[in-house]
Write a structure and sequence with these properties.
Distance between the termini: 6 Å
Largest sheet: 4 strands, antiparallel
Oligomer: single chain
Radius of gyration: 12 Å
Shape: globular
Structural class: mainly beta
CATH class: Mainly Beta
Strand content: over 45%
Number of domains: 1
């Protein structure tokens, strides 16, 4: 079953984040809580862990993309 990997919310005023870089490629195995992507907000740059273990099936938003909070970034199978 695929798990949607979405943009988390940090703080009350955060509306979006920019993907700085992916630390894993499509097809790579990932473990739950393993850092997979780095994002930047107005205030911070943070590494985001995978929400589940599996394979990074599809990166939906490449580096440089602005993603709204709750927006899909990738799918983990």
């Amino acid at each position: 079953m695929a798990v949607e990997f979405t943009m988390p919310k940090f703080g009350l005023t955060m509306a979006e984040g920019t993907i700085v870089r992916w630390l894993k490629n499509e097809g790579d195995a990932v473990q739950a809580d393993e850092v997979v992507v780095e994002i930047e907000t107005e205030k911070i740059t943070v590494e985001i862990p995978a929400p589940a273990s599996g394979r990074l099936q599809k990166i939906l938003t490449p580096a440089g993309t602005v993603v709204p909070v709750g927006g899909a970034m990738a799918m983990i199978e």
